[in-house]
Amino acid sequence: MKHPQFEALLFDIDHLGHEERIALEAHLRECEHCNVLATSWRDLEGNLISAPKMEPAAGFTERFRERLVVYKRRKQERLTLAVILAILISLIIVTGFFGLELLTFIPSVISLLLKSINGLVLLGGLLTILGDFVLVLLEGITQSLPAGLLLAIAAATSGLAVIWMFSIYRFGFNTLRKE
Ligand SMILES: [Zn+2]
Asked: What average pLDDT does range 155-173 have in this prediction?
C-alpha cells in the first residue's frame, strides 16, 4: 500500500480491520508524511470531541471525510478514463497503420513473406512500445484503484486486443487467399 491508501485508512481509523490496523501502524512507524497527518487528524478529532460547544462541528468531520472520499473517487474515475482512452487511441492508431500496411502487399509469395516478416518485426516493436506505455500508466494507477476495477480494465483491454488481433489475422488471411 502507498500513501493514498494509508491516508484513507487514517480518516477511517475507527472502522479498520485487524490487518489494516497492523499495516497502518507499521507504515506510520516509517513514514513521516502519514505520521504528521495522523497526529494532526487525531488532534483535530480530539479537539472536536473534547469541546462540547463545538458539537455541531461533528458534521464538519463527516463532511470532510465524505468530500475526501468523493475527491478520491473522482480522481480514480479520471485516471481510469484516461487509461481506457489511451489504450483505445493506441489500438485505433495501430489498427489503422497495419490496415494500410497490409493493403500495400504485392501479390508475390516472396514479397508477401518478406513483408509479413517485416510486419511481424514492426508489430513486435509497436507492441513493446505500447506495452511499456500501458505499463507505466497502469503502474501509476494500480496504487489507487480497487482490484475489481483493475480486473475490469484488464478484461476490457484483453477483449479489445483479441478482437484487434483477430481482425488483423482475418485481413491477412483474406489477402493470402485472393492470391
Ligand atoms: Zn505514508
From this structure: 74
Instruction: Give residues whose Cβ lies within 5 Å of ion ligand 1.
Output: 3, 31, 33-34
Q: Is the domain of 95 the same as that of 142?
A: yes
CA of 77 to the centre of ligand 1 (A): 23
Range 92-108 average pLDDT: 59
Contact indicator for 166, 98 with CB cutoff of 8 Å? no
Q: What is the pTM of this model?
A: 0.28
Residues 91, 159 within the same domain: yes
More confident residue, 27 or 175: 27
Residue range(s) defining the domain that contains residue 29:
1-50
Cα–Cα distance measured from residue 137 to residue 135, given in angstroms and rounded to the nearest whole number? 5
Total domains present in the chain: 2
